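About this split. The held-out portion is used to measure sequence recovery: a designer receives only the structure tokens and must propose an amino acid at every position. Recovery is the fraction of positions where the proposal matches the reference. Here is one held-out target exactly as it appears in the evaluation file.
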């Protein structure tokens, strides 16, 4: 009798272990299925945000190709039936425009940025530093100069090959060529290389690489405007406030400045633009950045010369 009870108890324990194993297997499969479902959902949302960003980019291309333009903006009143409700005037100073709670974009004309292809060391250093960062400004300016000149003689606050190889223990030397090829190359230059990431991300947005255009004084910030006109930054701020009230008066006053040069400066957009589009959807986000020339060169409607999508 005891033997029969022992066998039943043993059989029951085996059954319980089997049931536990089955339950564990079911729980594992459920967890895997849930992860797969979440992954599939996330992938779907990412694809959706990508497609929407691409669609907005194509729509903006059409907007700009059919638009009028002025001192600082593209204007288009003929898109009332468009899928996306774009404003009738898009100012090209990198301000954000919101299409919906999940979609926004901004556009910056290159005439309001610093061209790496024809980089002026003093301009770059002045614009990216504050009023009380004089020593930092000298380091940045001289280091850019040493990076782009053809000799190996360091400037007072600059850096040549010996600084990079010996002091910084880096396996590269200055380009020794006047044209910096990309904003990330600027990150290698002495002074720029030790900026913290937050500061660098803010600074890098001020530069572009392209054929170049006349500086549009109607699109510059106060520091940039003060550099070109050699005026106090507070005066530059007051001029920019005047610009918002009366563009023609702003142009008239600035055109009379001794340091205004109508060969290199002006008040019109270049139609070379940087477009940034951000689309969000639940747990997915797409950040599309594109540089496009709408100047219709070489019988082309436009030329895309830089594109990132992440």
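Reference sequence for scoring:
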């Amino acid at each position: 009798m005891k033997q029969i009870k022992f066998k039943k108890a043993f059989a029951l324990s085996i059954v319980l272990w089997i049931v536990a194993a089955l339950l564990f297997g079911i729980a594992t499969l459920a967890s895997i299925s849930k992860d797969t479902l979440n992954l599939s959902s996330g992938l779907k949302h990412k694809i959706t945000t990508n497609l929407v960003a691409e669609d907005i980019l194509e729509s903006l291309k059409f907007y700009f190709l059919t638009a009028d333009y002025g001192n600082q903006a593209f204007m288009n009143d003929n898109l009332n039936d468009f899928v996306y409700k774009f404003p009738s005037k898009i100012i090209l100073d990198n301000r954000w425009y919101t299409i919906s709670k999940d979609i926004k974009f901004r556009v910056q004309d290159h005439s309001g940025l610093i061209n790496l292809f024809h980089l002026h060391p003093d301009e770059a250093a002045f614009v990216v530093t504050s009023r009380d960062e004089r020593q930092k400004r000298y380091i940045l300016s001289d280091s850019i100069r040493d990076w782009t000149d053809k000799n190996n003689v360091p400037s007072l606050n600059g850096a040549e090959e010996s600084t990079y190889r010996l002091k910084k223990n880096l396996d590269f030397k200055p380009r020794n060529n006047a044209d910096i090829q990309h904003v990330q190359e600027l990150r290698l230059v002495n002074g720029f290389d030790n900026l913290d990431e937050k500061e660098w991300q803010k600074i890098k947005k001020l530069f572009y690489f392209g054929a170049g255009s006349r500086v549009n004084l109607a699109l510059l910030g106060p520091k940039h405007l003060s550099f070109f006109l050699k005026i106090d930054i507070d005066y530059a701020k007051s001029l920019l406030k005047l610009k918002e009230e009366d563009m023609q008066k702003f142009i008239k006053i600035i055109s009379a400045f001794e340091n205004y040069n109508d060969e290199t400066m002006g008040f019109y957009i270049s139609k070379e633009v940087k477009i940034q589009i951000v689309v969000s959807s639940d747990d997915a986000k797409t950040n599309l950045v594109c540089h496009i020339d709408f100047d219709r060169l070489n019988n082309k409607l436009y030329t895309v010369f830089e594109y990132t999508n992440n």
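Annotator remark: The CA atoms of residues 14 and 135 lie 79 Å apart.
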